[in-house]
Design goal:
The structure is a single chain. This protein has a domain at 92-109 and 232-462: 3-Layer(aba) Sandwich (Rossmann fold), CATH 3.40.50.1100. It is built from 22 helices and 15 strands. The protein has helices spanning 17-23, 44-48, 52-63, 69-79, 112-116, 119-129, 145-154, 173-180, 196-207, 210-218, 231-250, 270-280, 297-304, 329-336, 341-353, 361-364, 377-391, 397-413, 431-438, 447-458, 464-469, 485-493, and strands at residues 5-7, 32-34, 92-95, 98-102, 135-141, 160-167, 187-193, 221-224, 260-265, 285-292, 306-308, 356-358, 370-374, 419-423, 478-481. The strands form four sheets. A six-stranded mixed sheet has the order 3-4-14-9-10-13, sandwiched between helices. Strands 8-5-6-7-15 form a five-stranded parallel sheet, with helices on both faces. A two-stranded antiparallel sheet has the order 1-2. Helix 4 packs antiparallel against helix 6 (119-129).
């Protein structure tokens, strides 16, 4: 069955998966969504006997229907290879009554690697399929992790360039060092004077600039995105939820068909939306537990039906979630509005104008799959310390937000279904925050001293990604104001 993609904001013709991946964002500013979510065509028993690459193929073939079997398997095998430090790609670790799905074993030690390792291969294959002669310019805003994972994926990939914008004072020292030391003749990293939402809004504005697009085309370029607004990012993320279920079955932890809950720390809503898509494919998921930090715009939305970004932007120790405009939520809004592009567009126009919108009672009733809560900074630190002291397992700050929210969910509901918690980053990426949570005595140590100390107390080797940046030279030192982003792009492309 062919799956086509439509914009959440328009009635224009449907496009193929490869066309949606190449475009990234629809011309009307909407996000591409599948016309229908396909059902899994392999049994859970069959999936439980497969490795990660095989599960990934069985999921992705249902969404990316204009890719041949050979093309898709080639993309998968090139993505999920020795770049990952474990053969199983996404291990499940049982700790303190939950199963932590470790999504940080890729090249940049964050969950973004799971999708951004394959996106360049999908994009280059899509360009060939659609006879694209232009060079593809990847334009991305990052709250810390997407940027480095995208840079690592696209560095020196023929026929592409990549420009990453990040909030200059809104990422961890390790995250920043990872980005500004990135090699590759086709890469540019820019620190903006503003927060992540400013960067993301700036990138969307550049995408929707028709005159600039025309100018680019004349010079042999076209934009695409590596953010989770690109459907080529979202589809690979569905795979690891299916794989986690299959793994629990294989290990005899759950029976076939038994429902599990899934907890996801999220700011931009992409990672939990992937779990929602997995559930709608037929994966037996009960509750989708949406975990926020102090920027709890999603928690408030699930409680009230009102999405309101008019609030203080809080810089937290879980910076990848410091987001007030959750771009991927639009895909869910479109769905609960009955795939009504007009209704969705009306709400998104209110968001960009007044900074808020309210969904109807009928729409709110369709959110029963979700539970939203948040963890404060103190609660996040407490959870890191609690889990470490109980069993020696060390959580990063984002995973700790999810773990803390899961404890609140348990207390509120008594629901003891087996639960998978998305562990979205290595604790080595946020060493200072993690080590301070365990014991304040570590605060006097330098960043890389802390890395070695963490390795010792967690009994885990220092990841290659961290070893590499200890002595790496800074190669990107560009900064700009938000209103200068377009000129920076044109300067890099020499147009």
């Amino acid at each position: 069955m062919e799956v086509l993609y439509r914009s959440t904001r328009g009635k224009e013709e449907a496009v193929t998966a490869s066309q949606a991946i190449l475009k990234g964002l629809s011309e009307d500013g909407g996000l591409f969504v599948p016309e229908q979510i396909p059902a899994m065509d392999k049994s859970l028993k069959e999936l439980s006997e497969m490795n990660y690459q095989q599960v990934a193929y069985e999921v992705m073939k249902l969404f990316l229907t204009d890719f041949t079997e050979e093309e898709l398997k080639n993309c998968i095998n090139r993505a999920y290879d020795s770049k990952f430090d474990t053969e199983v790609i996404a291990p499940l670790v049982e700790a303190q009554g939950a199963y932590y799905l470790e999504l940080f074993h890729g090249a940049t030690i964050a969950f973004k690697d799971m999708a951004l390792s394959i996106l360049p291969h999908l994009m280059i294959t899509a360009a060939r399929k659609n006879s694209i002669k232009n060079e593809i310019v990847i334009l991305t805003a990052t709250s810390g992790d997407t940027g480095k994972a995208a840079l690592a994926g696209f560095a020196d990939v023929e026929g592409t360039r990549i420009i990453v914008f990040y909030p200059k004072n809104g990422v961890s020292p390790i995250q920043e060092k990872q980005m500004v030391t990135q090699k590759g003749k086709n890469t540019l990293v820019v620190g903006i004077h503003g927060n992540f939402d400013d960067a993301q809004t700036g990138v969307k504005k550049i995408f929707s600039d028709r005159e600039l697009a025309k100018e680019l085309d004349e010079k042999g370029f076209q934009f695409s995105s590596a953010n989770s607004i690109n459907i080529g990012r979202l589809v690979p993320q569905i795979c690891y939820y299916v794989y986690s279920y299959a793994t629990l079955m294989k290990q005899g932890k759950i029976a076939e068909g038994e429902k599990i809950n899934v907890v996801v720390p999220t700011g931009n809503f992409g990672n939990i939306l992937a779990a929602f898509y997995a559930k709608n494919m037929g994966l037996p998921i009960g509750k989708l537990i949406c975990a926020s930090n102090d920027n709890k715009v999603l928690y408030d939305f699930f409680n009230t039906g009102i999405y309101d970004r008019n609030r203080e932007f809080v810089l937290t120790t879980s910076p990848s979630m410091d987001i007030l405009i959750s771009s991927n939520l639009e895909r869910l809004i479109y769905r609960i509005a009955g795939n009504d592009a007009d209704k969705n567009r009306e709400l998104m126009t209110a968001l960009s104008g007044q900074g808020k919108y309210e969904i109807t009672d009928e729409m709110k009733a369709q959110l029963s799959d979700f539970y939203g809560n948040f963890a404060t900074e103190a609660e996040t630190a407490d959870e890191i310390r609690r889990v470490y002291e109980a069993c020696g397992y060390v959580l990063d700050t984002h995973t700790a937000v999810a773990s803390s929210v899961y404890q609140k969910y348990l207390k509120a509901t008594g629901d003891v279904a087996k639960t998978v918690i998305a562990s979205t980053a290595s604790p080595f990426k946020f060493t200072r925050s993690v080590m301070n949570a365990i014991d304040s005595k570590y605060d006097t140590m330098g960043d890389f001293e802390l890395v070695d100390e963490l390795s010792g107390i967690a009994n885990v080797e220092v990841p290659k990604a961290i070893q590499e940046i200890r002595t790496a030279a800074v190669v990107h030192d560009v900064q700009c104001d938000v209103d200068e982003m377009k000129n920076v792009v044109k300067g890099f492309l020499k147009i």
